[in-house]
Specification:
This protein has 176 residues and is mainly beta. The chain has a single domain, classed as Thrombin, subunit H (Beta Barrel), CATH 2.40.10. The chain contains one helix and twelve strands; from the N terminus they run ββββββββαββββ. An eight-stranded mixed beta sheet has the order 1-6-5-2-3-4-8-7, with no helix packed on it. Strands 9-10 form a two-stranded antiparallel ribbon. The chain starts with 14 loop residues before the first strand and ends with a strand. The N terminus is likely disordered.
Length: 176
């Protein structure tokens, strides 16, 4: 449980990183799992980061061994160098919880943030303008391999300046 006694710059994780593979080996995850008083109590757990060998690239796993971080924990921050210190080297948002697998209790999975995520926040990008006016939003472009047909999925994680995230999933059927 995290108890806050004052406003804090680390309360919204203003530091975040992309393409961090090899820099961080562990993180602290936070979340509001439904298993704990119907999601009313924030939980945190520290664990080891690893990259599982899934068929989907850019998936990262956090083995925290807390079997209660289940349904309701999606969108919970993964924070490297979790600390009371409020500086650029601490409390760095590196991913968010996206899903769990029942056969791997105590492990959370999320999208590995790449440089494409950072470009979403580059509002000078010409794609962020409508009739010459800057607008906030996300443009998702999906393209399967030219020889692929069958089921697929797209997962989009949107990070707000406040440190909160919105997760969207689409299931597709690619036809040729």
């Amino acid at each position: 449980m995290i108890l806050v006694d004052r406003d804090s710059a680390t309360g919204h994780y203003k530091n975040w990183a992309v393409e961090w593979k090899g820099k961080y080996q562990d993180a602290t995850v936070t979340g509001y799992p439904a298993a704990m008083l119907r999601g009313e109590i924030i939980q945190n757990a520290h664990g080891e980061i690893y990259f599982p060998n899934f068929t989907m690239p850019n998936i990262v796993a956090l083995k925290h061994n807390n079997s209660d971080l289940t349904q309701g924990s999606s969108g919970g921050a993964w924070v490297a160098n979790f600390s009371k210190q409020e500086d650029a080297e601490h409390n760095i948002l590196i991913a968010v919880s996206s899903f769990i697998m029942k056969e791997q209790s105590g492990v959370s999975f999320g999208a590995y943030p790449t440089s494409a995520l950072r470009r979403l926040f580059d509002y000078d990008n010409p794609r962020s303008k409508c009739n010459g006016k800057k607008v906030k939003g996300i443009n998702v472009i999906y393209k399967s391999s030219s020889d692929y047909a069958g089921p697929d999925a797209v997962h989009v994680m949107s990070y707000g300046e406040s440190g909160l995230a919105i997760e969207t999933h689409w299931r597709l059927n690619v036809a040729r």
